[in-house]
Design goal:
Layout: H1 3-14, E1 18-23, E2 30-34, E3 37-41, E4 48-49, E5 54-55, E6 61-62, H2 63-77, E7 84-86, E8 93-99, H3 101-105, H4 109-118, E9 121-127, H5 135-140, H6 142-145, H7 158-171, E10 179-182, E11 187-189, H8 194-203
Parallel strand pairs: 8-9
Antiparallel strand pairs: 1-2, 2-3, 3-4, 5-6, 7-9, 8-10, 10-11
Length: 215
């Protein structure tokens, strides 16, 4: 099995981007990390399965969820343009925040991030646009260039970073903004107050038993 050929085959047949190919415990079946979530395929891409894989020999461990966690950790470790990081002095948790223009414009975000910093949560910031054509608008938006929002946009290679974040958010399964990705690879969707997010992060510590608020 050639991972590159399998990626090309699935992309051509399904019209989805494939970022990762990994062998599963089932011989001949491969997990695909795609822009539409996890899929499973044979070596030639002739048969594709969408669903949840459970390991019955290890207390019904959800291999699909574990696979998505692994993909998110891998995706965040491979970013070309390092994100802006709001570093907590006494770091307890680190999360990646994917947010859209409207999330920043609400001016609710700044207070949330400051609260998280003082509570020991470092935040990596990933602005997300819908399509590449919006990059120049974002980089020139007067609202986002004024304090406290100018820190949310990359200082260098702004357009390139925003375009890269499109593919990154798809790979990580981010479909709703804002979204938070923990250092363990758990995804928390939607706006969360600092108190809610801290409670979720404190309880995301068992891969086989994810929080009901995370996937």
């Amino acid at each position: 099995m050639d991972p590159k050929v399998l990626k090309q085959t699935i992309t051509a047949r399904l019209g989805v981007s494939v970022y990762l190919v990994e062998q599963t415990p089932i011989p001949g079946l491969y997990m695909l990390g795609t822009s539409q979530g996890v899929l499973y395929s044979d070596a030639k891409g002739n048969y594709v399965v969408q669903g949840v894989m459970l390991d019955m020999t290890h207390n019904m461990k959800n291999l699909t969820v574990s696979g998505m966690r692994e993909q998110r950790r891998l995706g965040l470790s491979q970013v070309t343009h390092p994100p802006v990081v709001l570093k907590a002095r006494n770091e307890r948790h680190r999360v990646a925040l994917f947010f859209g223009e409207q999330d920043a414009a609400r001016r609710q975000l700044s207070g949330t991030l400051q609260h998280l910093q003082t509570s020991g949560v470092s935040v990596e910031l990933y602005p997300v646009i819908e399509h590449a054509g919006q990059a120049s608008h974002w980089c020139k938006d007067p609202l986002l260039q004024n304090d406290p929002f100018k820190a949310y946009l990359p200082q260098k290679e702004c357009s390139e970073t925003l375009i890269e974040n499109i593919g990154l958010s798809q790979w990580l399964g981010v479909k709703v903004l804002p979204a938070w990705v923990s250092s363990d690879g758990d995804l928390v969707r939607g706006y969360q107050s600092p108190e809610q997010l801290l409670k979720i992060l404190d309880h995301i510590n068992a891969p086989a038993n994810p929080s009901s608020s995370a996937s």
